[in-house]
């Protein structure tokens, strides 16, 4: 869940953590964005 919140804050320019991070891992598939958009719009919490 923390990773999802980071993505939402980063994509809405609301992230106030460290300026630079190195993240190594697989790239999310196309099914991730609809969930993030639903969270941002308040449809899910």
In short:
This protein is mostly helical and 45 residues long.
List keywords for this structure.
flat; mainly alpha; about 45 residues
Structural description of this entry:
The protein has a domain of 30 residues. 44% of the residues lie in helices and 0% in strands. It has two helices and no strands. The longest helix is centred in the N-terminal third of the chain and has 10 residues. It is flat and about 30 Å long. The termini are close together. The mean pLDDT is 79.
Q: Oligomeric form of this entry?
A: single chain
Task: Give the helices and strands as they follow along the chain.
Answer: HH
Shape: flat
% residues in beta strands: under 5%
Structural class category? mainly alpha
Radius of gyration: 11 Å
Mean pLDDT value: 79
* Poorly predicted segments: none
Measure the end-to-end span: 11 Å
Count of runs of 4 or more consecutive helical residues: 2
The largest β sheet comes out as:
none
In percent, how helical is the residue content? 40-55%
Count of extended strands:
0
